[in-house]
Amino acid sequence: MFLPQPLLEGRLLRRYQRFFAEVALHDGRTVTAHTPNTGSMKQCAVAGQRVLLSISANPARKLAYTWELVEVAGHWADVNTQRANRVVEEALRSGTVTPFAGGTVRPEFPWGISRFDFLVERGGERTLLEVKNVTLCDEEGRASFPDAVTERGQKHLRELLRAKGEGWRAAVLFLVQRGAATAFTPADAIDPEYGCLLREAVRGGVEALAYRTLVTPMEVRVDRELPVIL
């Protein structure tokens, strides 16, 4: 999907109070940008990194700027987690996510005590699909999730496993936003419970998929599937 234009380049000074980033723009101004990311942003929120901001003309907004991309290890990464589901939805509808090609897509599907990102229906088969945005990468080039302990993510895995036991097809898709990543693995050192639950879910029939994005200052789109290492 295309990104808002124009994007303004700057250097990150600091991220603070979770949703705020202080950025030094190339024109010499220092601005505060909204940070649409609830994670720790480990490796992405590092002072001095090159960032791209969008600007809104909406006078009702408290902050005109939004942090969209950051350059990490020579590749742009999309840190706007509000866009992840739209990128995946576009890929689902175009058939790029091959396990669900040709299916009809319904976003924000309620099931049990959860609301899953998508219901995909194809040939009488119904799949509950949850999407996780991934911006962390280890020294061996393996993308990993989560970047902070995620009780919500743990709950989703338990619900997917329960849905599988009730006859649904169930899957979690890790949207990898790191261009150098060659595989995906759970971040056991950060959230060991999530890693244990993911392995348990896969043993129980829940599918774990990882797709890497191609991120440029103009667009973000699903590029290729990555192996999942558990």
Give a summary of the structure in a few sentences.
By secondary structure, this protein is an alpha+beta fold.
What is the ordering of alpha helices and beta strands? Answer: EEEEEEHEEEEEHEEHEE
- Indicate the CATH class of the largest domain: Alpha Beta
Which fold name fills CATH's third level, the topology of the largest domain?
A: Trna Endonuclease, Chain: A, domain 1
Total DSSP helices: 3
CATH architecture identity of the largest domain: 3-Layer(aba) Sandwich
> Strand portion, in percent?
35-45%
Offer a few descriptive terms.
230 residues, alpha+beta, OB fold (Dihydrolipoamide Acetyltransferase, E2P), Trna Endonuclease, Chain: A, domain 1, five-stranded mixed barrel, 3 helices, 15 strands, globular
How does this structure look, described?
The protein is α+β, with helices and mostly antiparallel strands and 230 residues long. It folds into 2 domains: 7-78, Beta Barrel (OB fold (Dihydrolipoamide Acetyltransferase, E2P)), CATH 2.40.50.580; 81-226, Trna Endonuclease, Chain: A, domain 1 (3-Layer(aba) Sandwich). The chain contains 3 helices and 15 strands. It has helices at 84-94, 151-165, 192-203, and strands at 7-16, 20-25, 30-34, 50-55, 65-72, 75-78, 104-111, 114-122, 125-134, 136-137, 142-145, 169-176, 183-186, 207-215, 220-226. Strands 7-8-9-12-14-15 form a 6-stranded mixed beta sheet, sandwiched between helices. A 5-stranded mixed barrel has the order 1-2-3-5-4. Strands 10-11-13 form a 3-stranded mixed beta sheet. Strand 7 and strand 8 form a beta hairpin. Helix 2 packs parallel to helix 3. The radius of gyration is 18 Å and the shape is globular.
